[in-house]
Specification:
The complex is a heterodimer of chains A (530) and B (197).
Chain A (H helix, E strand, L loop, with lengths): L1 H11 L6 H10 L3 E5 L11 E4 L5 E7 L5 H16 L15 E6 L5 H16 L6 E3 L1 H12 L7 H13 L7 H11 L9 H25 L2 H22 L3 H28 L15 H22 L4 H13 L11 H13 L3 H19 L16 H8 L13 E2 L2 H10 L3 H11 L3 E6 L15 E5 L5 E2 H9 L8 H4 L2 H10 L6 H12 L3
Parallel strand pairs in A: 3-4, 4-5, 6-7
Antiparallel strand pairs in A: 1-2, 2-3, 7-8
Chain B lengths: L5 H22 L1 H5 L10 E6 L3 E5 L20 H34 L12 H10 L21 H13 L1 H23 L3 E2 L1
Antiparallel strand pairs in B: 1-2
Helix pairs in contact in B: 1-3, 4-6, 5-6
The chains are: A alpha/beta (530), B mainly alpha (197).
């Protein structure tokens, strides 16, 4: 069954779509991935560059489908570059031994092309270059199959979940709960003991499973679901690293590849938004139920892209484009519930970084108003503002009565208010907060504390503590400001502090982990000097 | 196995659970009026209790045993199922009310706001003492939002006492003084909901 899944996936993937899982495979086989190209013209025919334990350098060119003579003629130039141009990368430097050039395709190579390659190889050898090696579909299937080894769902129910996720993959949002549950069955998060190397292999296998699951979304251009999927996988990668104390070298590549997958999805979404004039999607008759929430999601995802791009280049034109998108579309957006808060907060942070401070503060102040008024104790008799555990889709289902058996009422409690208060307090917006304080005191402020650091990365913790408290009456302004300035961030696992870009992505995918500490770390990261 | 439709039966069970919850709320407005929270993760809830600092507690499980004879099953639909559900709702509602009073008992004992009349008949004085001891909130129009929970057997006595307080000038003045004090302290509390320097 797995063989069919791998074959279906592999044969329908284009070269970009199987690049990340192929890197995962190489890493699991012991090669260190040092460079992955973004398919720029200056890639010199090398899509992937790796380093073997004996310091041999390998350069891979990836192609999709059958390579016949006409395809061969169109790629011959790239193959020459792959073989004859040196690998230039800071972590490799100049070496006496030439790199090993390898052409990979997920299809096959026709016999006339094999003949041509044989002749070319003789010529390469004659000129002192190494021979071009080939990897084709059959070998890839075997190698991917071997990679999974024992790290697959073993129970029929879990295997059924994998199939369901693969079949469901397409235009729908990712079922993050089901995907997380699947990852928990294939990763060493239980009591089982595993060597560091095997923990790394189980992560690599799960990373490739993620590619299979997200393939349908990728093919449909569902960048949001692809982004979510890679971030869920990255979170579980950190969960394993925290739980098993596996050294970084065994999980780092998988984690980096997940982040690369997520970044590519954001980049594609950004491009699509730049090219679009209208943001309607799917069935137009019913799109009104989701349109404004879609804009909110776009504000958050694009802001995440803008903020991370700014980190690479303070004058990033992408960040400017995103800021302009946020300015243009903010009014068309609506929060569906408290899980929308992180999306808005990233937009606020980006606006701030682009000198649009008043707009950012007004946005946060408006969010405080919405949460406090909809969930304050005065709102008795109303359903309230859905809490952080409700996605945009879940909120739509509740609002239109598709969940008649769900009687959850949200009035009286909030998870997302405290970080918003901190945000304005850190900016000395006493007037704004004074205006809201009466409503703020009428709602209980909640925070969930996972029992162990590694469980912070889980979709759902079985144990842990829910803390609820009310805001002070009266509240000293000075104390509020000092508390906001000294927010305790020790609850955030250390590994996140070392990978703060991940945090920006993580809170959009796990909004129920967004709290005062996360907001503080994000702000510190944004204002930190590079 | 024999032919079955487990998924659809699961959906029916969800609907039944909702119906039970709705019936309990309808039968016990006190329970329906209590602010409730659905905890999505973890099993411990930590909160502040006035006068006692931080309280950390888990949840208590309640349930009703359901006895279904196999020969009942073929006809356990519509009215017969409704009857069964009514029985379950009554039992769970009763347990929830018992838990409510037990918790109230513990809390009032700890807070010192319990008044034990030691089996003596309820009087206007006891009622006024009770009102005096409680914290009362008011709505925007100045009407108290608190309510009293009485055993049905005490309703008649309570009504008589209410009339007595309204008709006796001394009792009326005392009740009005209590109301004014409560109102002032509520205003003070409301006035505290602000930022200060």
């Amino acid at each position: 069954m797995l063989g069919r899944i791998i074959e279906n996936w592999l044969t329908s993937a284009n070269e970009r779509q199987y690049q990340i899982p192929f890197c995962q495979l190489l890493s699991a086989e012991g090669e260190s991935v040092v460079d992955i190209s973004t398919h720029h013209p200056h890639e010199k025919g090398k899509d992937i560059v790796t380093l073997l334990p004996d310091r041999t350098v390998r350069a891979y060119q990836l192609k999709a489908g059958r390579i016949d003579l006409s395809t061969w003629h169109s790629i011959e130039g790239e193959i020459n570059s792959l073989v004859e141009l040196p690998v230039e990368h800071p972590s490799i430097g100049r070496r006496r031994k030439w790199h090993e050039p390898i052409l990979v395709t997920n299809g096959d190579i026709t016999p006339p092309v094999v003949d041509q390659i044989r002749s070319m190889n003789d010529a390469f050898e004659h000129r002192g270059f190494p021979r071009l090696q080939l990897v084709v579909k059959g070998e890839l299937l075997k190698r991917f199959g071997k990679l999974h080894g024992h790290y697959l769902p073993s129970e029929p129910q879990d295997f059924g979940r994998l199939l369901k996720l693969i079949l469901h993959s397409g235009r729908n949002p990712l079922d993050k709960e089901a995907f997380s549950a699947l990852l928990e069955t294939v990763l060493p998060l239980g009591e089982q003991k595993m060597t560091d190397r095997n923990a790394g292999r189980s992560l690599a296998s799960a990373g490739v499973l993620t590619s299979y699951i997200l393939h349908g979304c990728d093919a449909a251009g569902n960048h949001w679901a692809v982004f979510d999927g890679w971030i869920v996988m990255a979170a579980y990668c950190l969960a394993v690293s925290e739980k098993t104390r596996t050294p970084e070298r065994y999980w780092r590549t998988t984690f980096d590849l997940c982040i690369l997958g997520a970044r590519r999805a954001l980049q594609h979404l950004f491009q699509e938004c730049k090219e679009r004039q209208w943001f309607v999607e799917g069935d137009v008759l019913t799109d009104g139920h989701f349109f404004r929430y879609r804009i909110t999601i776009l504000l958050g995802l694009l802001s995440a892209w803008g903020l991370t791009e700014m980190r690479r280049d303070q004058l990033s034109p992408d960040a400017d484009s995103v800021a302009s998108f946020v300015r243009r579309h903010l009014k068309e957006s609506t929060p569906w519930g408290e899980s929308a808060i992180p999306f808005y907060m990233l937009a606020a942070l980006l606006l701030e970084q682009r000198a649009l401070q008043p707009m950012a503060e007004a946005l946060v102040s408006n969010l405080i108003f919405i949460v406090a008024s909809q969930n304050g104790s005065d709102a008795v008799g109303r359903p309230g503002f859905p809490n952080v555990y409700y996605s945009a889709e879940a909120a739509v289902r509740l609002a239109v009565g598709l969940e008649p058996n769900n009687l959850e009422n949200f009035v009286g409690f909030t998870y997302g208010l405290s970080p918003l208060i901190d945000y304005l307090a850190r900016r000395w917006r006493k007037g704004e907060l004074s205006r809201h304080w009466y409503s703020v005191t009428r709602v209980s402020l909640l925070q969930f504390v996972p029992p162990k650091p590694w469980e912070w990365f889980r979709w759902k913790c079985e144990n842990g503590k829910l803390i609820s408290k009310f805001a002070n009456e009266p509240q000293s302004w000075g104390k509020l400001v000092s508390d906001a300035a000294e927010t305790d961030t020790s609850g955030i696992p250390e590994v996140v502090r070392r990978n703060q870009e991940f945090l920006i992505f993580f809170i959009l995918v796990f909004p129920h982990r967004y709290d005062r500490a996360v907001q503080k770390v994000l702000e510190d990261w944004c204002f930190e000097k590079k | 196995m024999l032919p079955d439709i487990p998924e659809t039966k699961g959906e029916i069970l969800n609907r039944i659970t909702t119906a039970i919850k709705r019936k309990i709320d309808a039968d016990h407005p006190i329970l329906a009026g209590i602010k409730s929270i659905t905890q999505h993760e973890g099993v411990i809830h930590q909160h502040d209790q006035i006068g006692f600092g931080t309280v950390s507690e888990g949840y208590r499980e309640i349930g009703a045993p359901v006895k279904i004879d196999l020969d009942e099953v073929p006809d356990l639909i519509r009215e017969k199922l409704d009857q069964k559900l009514t029985g379950i709702a009554n039992e769970i509602g009763k347990q929830q009310m018992q838990m409510f009073f037990r918790t109230l008992d513990e809390a009032t004992e700890k807070a010192g706001t319990r008044l034990d009349n030691k089996g003596k008949p309820m009087t206007a004085d006891t009622i006024l003492q009770l009102i005096e001891m409680t914290e009362v909130d008011f709505d925007r129009s100045g009407k108290p939002t608190s309510s009293f929970v009485l055993h049905p057997d005490m309703m008649e006595t309570a009504k008589k006492i209410d009339q007595q307080i309204k008709n006796d000038p001394d009792l009326k003045a005392r009740a009005e003084a209590i109301r004014r004090r409560h109102y002032e302290s509520w205003l003070a509390r409301e006035n505290n909901r602000k930022l200060v320097d």
